[in-house]
Design a protein that fits this description.
Helix content: 25-40%
Strand order of the largest sheet: 1-5-4
Structural class: alpha+beta
Number of domains: 1
Distance between the termini: 25 Å
Number of helices: 2
Radius of gyration: 14 Å
Shape: flat
Length: about 80
């Protein structure tokens, strides 16, 4: 996703997920060379009002999808409670 798509996704989920609902985001870092954009989930424009419940490397996804060691980018899991 481009930076504009990420921002739109975060804004949309903030708007449509009910109060105290949960947003789960599981992504790996990926550099999009054709768009010169670093899709780093640690840098997404998350809503600062939300309560972060989990924010860590997802070791399961790392082991399952990086089993052949072709990709070294970690999968980042973030779960947050929506607060407005």
């Amino acid at each position: 996703m481009t930076s504009e798509q990420v921002a739109g996704y975060i804004e949309l989920t903030q708007r449509v997920v009910r109060e105290d609902g949960h947003l789960l985001n599981l992504n790996r870092r990926k550099y999009l060379s054709e768009e010169k954009y670093d899709n780093n989930p640690l840098l997404y424009p998350y809503a600062s009002s939300n309560k972060v419940l989990v924010w860590e490397v997802d070791h399961f996804m790392d082991r399952v999808l990086n089993y052949d060691h072709v990709r070294q980018d970690s999968w980042i899991l973030r779960v947050e409670r929506i607060r407005r």
